[in-house]
Specification:
This protein is mostly helical. It has 4 helices and 2 strands, in the order ααββαα. The chain has a two-stranded antiparallel sheet with strand order 1-2. Helix 1 packs across helix 3. The protein is flat, with a radius of gyration of 19 Å.
């Protein structure tokens, strides 16, 4: 699959794919907003599978684009996971610090 993904980005080029990536992120954003704002009378509508499938489809598009950039620039999964772990821990620390600061007010 990696070779096929590289064929795609090598065919279209990084800059055109970057522009396309922006539209895919926008579509994911819109799918999530549509799902989250489908509220009637203050209560969420029942979970509808097609809405989740729409989000899954848009997530797939975004992830496909991300994989193109990852493979193009030769970034391995373990490097990404390591950085993500650091960022998650940092964000959790910020959340905890904000709760402590809130209590101190």
């Amino acid at each position: 699959m990696k070779e096929d993904i590289l064929k795609v980005i090598n065919n279209y080029g990084v800059i055109p794919q970057l522009k396309y990536f922006q539209s895919e992120v926008f579509e994911l954003n819109e799918a999530i907003i549509q799902k989250e704002y489908s509220v009637i009378g203050g209560k969420p509508e029942p979970l509808i599978n097609t809405e989740n499938n729409h989000i899954a489809e848009e997530l797939s598009d975004v992830m496909f684009m991300l994989k193109q950039f990852q493979y193009y620039y030769g970034i391995n999964d373990s490097n990404i996971k390591e950085i993500m772990k650091f960022k998650i821990e940092r964000q959790l620390k910020r959340i905890e610090e904000s709760k402590i600061a809130e209590v101190g007010k």
